Every structure is written in structure tokens, then in C-alpha cells.
Amino acid sequence: MKLDVYNLKAEKVSDVELPEEIFAAKVNVDLMHQAFVRQMANARLGTHNTKRRGEVRGGGAKPYKQKGTGRARRGSLKSAQSVGGGRIFTPKPRDYSQEMPRKMRRAALRSALTVTANDEKIIMVENLSMPEAKTADVAKAMKALAGDKRVLVLIPGSNEENDNFVKSGRNLADTKLLQARYLNIRDLLKSEKVIIPLEALDVIKSYLG
Q1: How many of the other CB atoms lie within 10 Å of CB of 98?
Q2: E strands of 51-172, at which residues?
Q3: What 3-state class would DSSP assign to 135?
């Protein structure tokens, strides 16, 4: 697949051939779903906690006698039927993380990149070089390249010119900046456009190619 390469003014400067093993791979929807669910599960803190019958305070004495009151028999005010009593089957702290082999995770990423490419969501740019950090310039570039879409911009690495772009673009509402080596399926699927500099493409090829 061949795509045009633009500069930050949305002017075509060249073209590039995307590697077929990454951007024209076999799409495995089930694998993409598994990778997405895993990522969302691993993001959960699992710190929710409720008190059960054995953890609430009080309830030492029998609230009233067993017989003769016409009421249901009660042995403790700590039961769930009582106000302030313990809860039943409510959450406790737990680990939600899921394991997934690296080969499967990378295959899922290739599937997601293939879907993104087939949907014409990928925009290749020459570089992210900016002489100074200026948010208005990045906003203007994103408007020219992607319109009003939700944009994922892959950052190839850290250098002074890229850092100027990062400082300028990290406060834009519909623009997410992400290091290319941290590319993940959730950000790919949530974005309407994906901007990939040529250097970031090399990073992707280094571990998915």
C-alpha cells in the first residue's frame, strides 16, 4: 500500500510504501477484541471495597427475644437486612489483570493497523519538526491534516524538535500524542485519524515487522 507523505502544512512532499506484513495483515477480529478487553481490564485498579457481615461494627447482643414478639427471629443487627449491616456478594479488592502472549498482542496490533489503513485513517507526515513550541501552530497543522477528527499522533522519539511539537500539542482537546513504541489497540480503535511520521513508521517496523 502506497500513501502520500505530507508536511505540517498538508502539502505533499513524497510518498511511502507501507509494509504489507503490518498494514495488509490478516484481520483477526476475535484477537483484536481479546487484546482490547485485556487492555481495559489491566487499566482497572480493583481497589473497590465494601464491608460484609463480619466486618461491620456492633451486633453483639441479640436485638430482641426469639419468640413472642410476632416479628421474624433475629440473631444480630449485622445482617444485610438491617440498616448499617453488612453487604452480601459486594466487591472486594481484586486483580483484574489478564495475561496475553506477546505474539498474540502484536498480531492484534497488526490487525488493528490493517483495519485503520483499509479505512483510510492513516496520514503519513514527513516529520514533526517545529522551531519553537507554539500551540496555535500545532492546532493549525492538525486542522489542515485531519480536519475536526479525533487524532492520534505517534511520536518517534525524544529530540528538541519533537519536544516542541509535544509541548505544543498535548493540550489540544481532540489530539492525543503517543510514543510510537507504546502504540496500543485501544488508542488505535478510538481515533478517527492516525498521524504517523516517517521516523515513527521505522519504530513500528522495528517490533511489528
Answers
A1: 13
A2: 122-125, 151-155
A3: helix
Element (H, E) at 32: helix 29-42
User: Cβ(156)–Cβ(203) under 8 Å?
Assistant: yes
Cα separation, 76 vs 65, whole angstroms = 11
- Whether the CA torsion 137, 142, 145, 147 is positive or negative: it is negative
Structural domains in the chain, CATH included, are 2-26+99-208 (3.40.1370.10)
How crowded is the C-beta side of 54, counted as CA atoms within 13 Å? Answer: 1
Q: In which band, very low, low, confident or very high, does the pLDDT at 136 lie, cut at 50, 70 and 90?
A: very high
pTM, two decimals, is: 0.84
Look at residue 197 and give its three-state secondary structure: strand
